[in-house]
Write a structure and sequence with these properties.
The chain is of the alpha+beta class. It folds into 3 domains: 64 residues, no CATH class; 228 residues, Spore Coat Polysaccharide Biosynthesis Protein SpsA, Chain A (Alpha-Beta Complex); 135 residues, Jelly Rolls (Sandwich), CATH 2.60.120.260. Helix content is 32%, strand content 23%. It contains 14 helices and 18 strands. The chain has a 7-stranded mixed sheet, sandwiched between helices. The chain has a 5-stranded antiparallel sheet with strand order 10-12-17-14-15, with no helix packed on it. Strands 11-18-13-16 form a 4-stranded antiparallel sheet. A hairpin with an 8-residue loop joins strand 7 and strand 8. Helix 1 packs antiparallel against helix 2 and helix 10 runs antiparallel to helix 12. The radius of gyration is 28 Å and the shape is elongated. Keywords: Glycosyltransferase, Membrane, Transferase, Transmembrane, Transmembrane helix. It comes from Paramormyrops kingsleyae. This is MGAT4 family member C. Pathway: Protein modification; protein glycosylation. InterPro entries: Glyco_transf_54 (IPR006759), MGAT4 (IPR057279), MGAT4_A/B/C_C (IPR056576).
Length: 506
């Protein structure tokens, strides 16, 4: 393989980049090419452009050349090793035979250890995977916390699926007897299912790749864990609208479902793949159920590559959710003291967890606008959620505004707006007013409320107004922050929180 048409000196550098850069060879090659072209900037444009075209053609050819299998001996060796790992088990082939259809479920015959198929679809499935631990077992406490922290109305909308994923069937049978005794009424009501995926469906867990220099037993543990979760996700595909991943050693906040529904409602109209309600591990990760087949396939494809929480991050990125969307306060807390891996100590705690999270705002679906000069990507929407982000604008002037325009008129009971942060305490709104409006009309600049009334003035950068629905006679269509005096400091709006009231007469 040759870089024909490329100067000899550059050709040697390109080969070196190809050999040493590994998977990033294309990036390294492009850097060399641009560096070379930079040295040639004294040439006339008509000389550089044909050369650039020739170089790009060479790169495209080289890329196709490698993808077709003509690779260096080192790459061939790595591919042979990878192929050996992938083909070392007939069970592996059996599991992966339907990967061409990523939207379809994986063909696994599950054992129902407790409960039976659901007669109707629920709002939320909560999935837990559990194996035998050397020290401690927290599964019963976790299930109890889920049910105890939910109201009767919330219980109607959830189903908890426990995957007992240990290959020790005697342990599974013993534990399911305990579960059946303690939670019999939830099983009868269709709120709790216990399942098991037979060992015969698992890919090989021997001779796995030793990525990250992990010891062999740890690689086996985390690889099996990926498959455990994949089979759990696969089972839960059609049970509900949303799916939440938990671990088997978790405590829940009170009325967590109501808090989550508020967040989901506030995200209507915006794209998301994974919402996070805890910053730890696999705890409190929420998905659309329609994405579960793809996620299950994804975990199976890369089961031996890396831990599950890392794979979840890659999956989110592949589906074009670039940023983490994590809400505060956290709704779930890790309570286990010993890890399921060899019983080692695991004292991780989520310091954002709150036992009583019922005060989470409703923040109805809305569009946000401002004429304040926005700094970088600190856009207005970042102030209107429980995500740990904020709006940041350059020095506002008198008359500047920040508007929340509801998608439909809303009865609001309470509004709280906080500006500035702990490390930027001067970037507050020094002089401003809070207004609410009605009567949306179309203008040359789009829809705007034609009538506003003032609810109050900002004090020390903050404002909170209670019983809004008793102070005004109309359902609100717009909430507006108005700057009443120019300031040289920039403006951070850290959070905009709105609570709705029931319609009049309820």
């Amino acid at each position: 393989m040759h870089f024909r048409g490329v100067p000899k000196a550059l050709r040697g550098q390109l080969w070196a980049a190809r050999i040493h850069a590994g998977s990033s060879w294309l990036t390294a090659t492009m850097r060399l090419l641009w560096k070379y072209l930079d040295k040639m900037r004294c040439f006339r444009k008509r000389s550089v452009i044909p050369l650039l075209g020739a170089l790009v053609t060479v790169l495209l050819f080289l890329n196709l050349y490698i993808e077709d299998g003509y690779v260096l001996e080192e790459d061939k060796r790595q591919l042979r090793e990878s192929a050996a790992h992938q083909l070392n088990s007939e069970r592996y082939v059996h599991t992966f035979k339907d990967l061409t259809n990523f939207s379809g479920t994986i063909n696994v015959t599950y054992r129902y250890l407790a409960g039976s198929p659901l007669p109707r679809k629920k709002y939320l499935t909560i999935g837990l995977s559990s194996v035998k631990r050397k020290r401690g077992n927290y599964l019963m406490e976790t299930i109890k916390s889920i049910f105890d922290q939910s109201s009767y109305e919330e219980l109607k909308e959830i189903v908890v699926v426990v995957h007992l994923a240990d290959f020790d069937l005697a342990w599974c049978e013993s534990l399911v007897q305990d579960i059946s005794r303690k939670f019999a009424h939830h099983i009868i009501a269709g709120r709790l299912l216990v399942i098991h995926a037979p060992e015969e469906y698992y890919p090989s867990l021997d001779g796995l790749k030793r990525n990250y220099n992990d010891p062999e037993d740890r690689v086996r543990f985390r690889s099996k864990q990926n498959v455990d979760y994949a089979f759990l996700l696969n089972f839960c595909t059609n049970l509900s609208d949303f799916y939440m991943m938990l671990e088997d050693d978790v405590r829940c906040s009170k009325n967590f479902l109501t808090a989550m529904k508020k967040v989901i409602t506030s995200k209507e109209g915006s794209y998301w793949v994974m919402l996070e309600f805890s910053k730890l591990g696999y705890i409190g990760k929420l998905y659309h159920s329609k994405d579960l087949p793809r996620l299950a396939h994804f975990l199976l494809m890369f089961y031996q590559e890396m831990p599950c929480d890392w794979l979840l991050i890659h999956f989110r990125g592949l589906l074009a959710q670039k940023d983490v969307i994590r809400f505060k306060p956290s709704l779930f807390q890790h309570m286990g003291y010993y890890s399921s891996y060899k019983g080692v100590e695991n004292k991780l705690k989520d310091d954002d967890f709150e036992e009583d999270s019922f005060d989470i705002p409703d923040n109805p679906p809305a569009s946000l606008y401002t004429n304040i000069n926005v700094f970088e990507n600190y856009d207005p929407t970042k102030a209107y959620s429980s995500v740990d982000e904020y709006f940041w604008g350059k020095s506002p002037s008198t008359g500047d505004f920040f508007v929340i325009m509801f998608h439909k008129s809303t009865r609001v009971s309470r509004i709280r707006i906080v500006t500035g942060t702990d490390d930027r305490q001067n970037d507050i709104l020094h002089h401003g007013a809070l207004e609410v409006g009605e009567k949306l009309v179309g203008t040359k600049k789009g829809k705007q409320c034609s009538s506003y009334i003032t609810l109050g003035e900002f004090k020390h950068g903050n404002i909170e107004v209670q019983n809004v629905h008793h102070k005004i006679s109309f359902d609100i269509e717009c909430v507006r922050i108005v700057v009443t005096a120019s300031q040289k400091e920039w403006l951070i709006i850290r959070s905009i929180s709105l609570w709705t009231a029931p319609p009049a007469g309820h």
